[in-house]
Specification:
alpha+beta; binds FE2/S2 (inorganic) cluster; 206 residues
């Protein structure tokens, strides 16, 4: 006779549960469920990596072919593999906004976005804003208002401002503050950054 594994329960109760499971066919059901899981695993998304894999990104309107490990962030892929170093890596953990890029019209922290995830999307970085020797109006506004000190936060603020003005062309002060509240300037240049954001559309207020 099998040993009673649960000394707290009489053997008759343990035996009764086993017999019940057998009688109701749960054991075959469990086998079926396990089989389904295997099939699902076999037909699920293809596993990539951990080594480098080829990816293709659309950055500032140009196709960029790279080889990166799947764990590489959009920021590192663009800075280190595509040599576009405009956007800065500062906190590298989604806390400061210095790495802000625009992906399909929305701002993202590129330090917290995997490069492999944004294939097929339109990626815009600060490197693509100026045309030839002419600055983008937002970049020009930052220069005009002296909206920077060390400059590390500036590319992220510029991209956040571009996204803000594309969505809300004539923002109020409150709307501009809200649009830029995902970015931090450790030098404390917030007043001039806000002024630049408003000046870019000619709506700066005193
Ligand atoms: S570097 Fe990405 S949020 Fe700070
Ligand atoms: S200008 Fe230095 S962090 Fe913003």
């Amino acid at each position: 006779m099998p040993k009673n594994k649960d000394p707290e329960k009489p053997e008759s109760i343990n035996r009764g549960r086993r017999q019940f499971l057998k009688a109701t066919g749960v054991a075959p059901l469990a086998a079926t469920v396990a089989g389904a899981a295997v099939v699902e695993a076999q037909s699920g998304p293809a596993i990539v990596g951990p080594g480098e894999v080829p990816i293709e990104l659309m950055v500032n309107g140009k196709r960029v072919a790279l080889r990166v490990e799947p764990r590489v962030t959009l920021l590192n892929a663009i800075r280190n593999r595509a040599d576009m170093t405009g956007n800065k890596r500062v906190c590298d953990r989604g806390a400061c906004g210095a790495c802000t890029m625009i992906v399909d019209g929305r701002t993202v922290y590129s330090c917290s976005t995997l490069a492999i995830e944004v294939q097929g999307k339109q990626i815009r970085t600060v490197d693509g804003l100026a045309s030839a020797a002419t600055l983008h109006p937002v970049q020009q506004a930052f220069c005009d208002t002296d909206g920077l000190m060390c400059g590390f936060c500036t590319p992220g603020f510029v991209m956040a401002t571009v996204a803000l003005l594309e969505k809300t062309p004539n923002p109020t002060v409150e709307q501009a503050k809200k649009g830029l509240d995902g970015n931090i300037c450790r030098c404390g240049t917030f007043v001039r950054i806000l002024e630049a954001a408003l000046k870019a559309k000619g709506v700066a207020r005193g």
